[in-house]
Amino acid sequence: MQVSVETTSGLERQVTITVPAARIDQDVNKQVQQQARSRRLDGFRPGKVPTSVIKRMFGKSIRSDVLSQVVQETFYQAVDQEKLMPAGTPNIQFNKDVEGEDLEYVATFEVYPEIALADFSGAEIEKLSADITDADLDEMINTLRKQQGDWEAVERAAVEGDRLNIDFEGFIDGEAFDGGKAEAMDLVLGSGSMIPGFETGLVGVSSGDETELNVTFPEDYHAENLKGKATVFKVKVNSVSAQKLPELNEEFFARFGIEETSVDGFRSEVKKNMARELKHALKTKLKDQVFSQLTELNQIDIPAALIDREIDVLRRQAVQQFGGPDAKIDPNMLPKDMFTDQAKRRVSVGLLMQELIKVNKIEPSDEKVRATVEEMAETYQDPQEVIDYYYGNQEILNQIKGLVLEEQVVEHLLETAKVIEKQVSYEEAIKPAQRGEAAE
Question: Is 169 helix (H, G, I), strand (E, B) or coil?
Answer without folding.
Answer: strand
